[in-house]
């Protein structure tokens, strides 16, 4: 790769994750902030979001505006699930490599976006979780499910989270399903006295979503076997914890073609 700085656009720059991304980009000399999007912030300097001096990047109201005005290499998107798919498509249309932290994609959408990235000859990443500890939790959980196939996932997030279950829990469930023996758990005659009591059903096991103020992001994968349980748990305390992963992703997407789903696939 050349010594040129990687030009980064940030979508959702005023959001809680977006602000961390703006800060991370401004603090890495090998990256250059070239555009920032916030639908409701107005045309202010992006540095305002993070208490930094003027960056010269004026916030755009739409992604199209931002990408037509700047030659970005990479778009980092932490916005809302309803906009994630169209944002990713827009980035690819502009030939900008998407690094997407926003959750809420269907497998069909991911497949289509992968094809579009390949057609454009650009790399992309959708990662439900950029935290290294969370990735390890998922890997360990998949490993444990080979030996202890009775499993339930409990994920905890703040009460304002829009989607349930979390993207991380779905990703964990997918990884477990790839290696766990097929098994429909629980009593076949089980009845829910209150609807939803047993959580969401996924390939024979359950995912439970807890939503409470004061909680940031946690997940527990509980395995049951004869006379024993095993719990694999990850706790996130701060959004800054995702940034080393986002930083690696911004650099890695410059090096391949196609859309990768899951940060674990680009972690060395
Ligand atoms: P947030 O604080 O609510 O920020 C979301 C931002 O998105 C808002 O600032 C809003 O801009 C902007 N926005 C809304 N609609 C938009 C659109 N159509 N186009 C562009 N921007 C739009 O949320 P957050 O906590 O930062 O989380 C954002 C997303 O990241 C969520 O889906 C969350 O689940 C996900 N997340 C992922 C990870 C991971 O590791 N992958 C980690 C944490 C969170 P305005 O302020 O201008 O209205």
* SSE class: alpha/beta
Name the helix and strand elements from N-terminus to C-terminus, one letter apiece. Answer: EHEHEHEHEHEHEEEEHE
Number of helices: 7
The second-level CATH architecture of the largest domain is 3-Layer(aba) Sandwich
Hetero ligands: NADP nicotinamide-adenine-dinucleotide phosphate
Structure description:
With about 270 residues, the protein is an alpha/beta fold. It has helices spanning about 15-25, 65-70, 80-95, 105-120, 130-145, 165-180, 245-250; strands at about 5-10, 30-35, 75, 95-100, 125, 150-155, 200, 205-210, 215-225, 230-235, 260. It folds into two domains: about 5-125 and about 240-265, Rossmann fold; about 130-235, Dihydrodipicolinate Reductase, domain 2. It contains seven helices and eleven strands. Strands 2-1-3-4-5-11 form a six-stranded parallel β-sheet, with helices on both faces. A five-stranded mixed β-sheet has the order 7-8-6-9-10, with helices on one face. A hairpin with a 2-residue loop joins strand 7 (about 200) and strand 8. Helix 3 (about 80-95) runs parallel beside helix 4 (about 105-120) and helix 5 packs parallel to helix 6. The protein is elongated, with a radius of gyration of 20 Å. The structure holds NADP nicotinamide-adenine-dinucleotide phosphate (NAP). The site of NADP nicotinamide-adenine-dinucleotide phosphate has 25 residues, from helix 1 and helix 3. Its EC number is 1.17.1.8. Pathway: Amino-acid biosynthesis; L-lysine biosynthesis via DAP pathway; (S)-tetrahydrodipicolinate from L-aspartate: step 4/4. Keywords: Amino-acid biosynthesis, Cytoplasm, Diaminopimelate biosynthesis, Lysine biosynthesis, NAD, NADP, Oxidoreductase.
């Amino acid at each position: 790769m050349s010594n040129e700085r990687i030009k980064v656009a940030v979508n959702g720059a005023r959001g809680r994750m977006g602000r961390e991304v703006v800060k991370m980009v401004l603090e890495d000399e090998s990256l250059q902030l070239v555009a920032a999007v916030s639908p409701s912030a107005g045309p202010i300097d992006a540095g305002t979001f993070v208490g930094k001096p003027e960056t010269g990047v004026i916030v755009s109201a739409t992604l199209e505006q931002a990408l037509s005005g700047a030659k970005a290499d990479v778009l980092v998107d932490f916005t809302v699930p309803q906009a994630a798919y169209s944002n990713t498509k827009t980035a690819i249309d502009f030939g900008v490599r998407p690094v997407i932290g926003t959750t809420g994609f269907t497998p069909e959408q991911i497949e289509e976006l992968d094809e579009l990235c390949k057609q454009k000859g650009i790399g992309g990443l959708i990662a439900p979780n950029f935290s290294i500890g969370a990735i390890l939790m998922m890997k360990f959980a998949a490993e444990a499910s080979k030996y202890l196939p009775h499993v339930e996932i409990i994920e905890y997030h703040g009460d304002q989270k829009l989607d349930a279950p979390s993207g991380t829990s779905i990703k964990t469930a997918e990884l477990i399903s790839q290696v766990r023996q097929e098994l429909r758990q629980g009593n076949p005659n089980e009845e829910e006295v209150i609807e939803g009591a047993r959580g969401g059903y996924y390939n024979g096991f359950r995912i439970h979503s807890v939503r409470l103020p004061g909680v940031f992001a946690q997940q527990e994968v509980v395995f049951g076997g004869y006379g024993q349980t095993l719990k694999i748990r990850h706790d996130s305390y701060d959004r800054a914890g995702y940034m080393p992963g986002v930083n690696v992703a911004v650099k890695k997407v410059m090096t391949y073609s196609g859309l990768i789903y899951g940060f674990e696939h680009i972690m060395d």
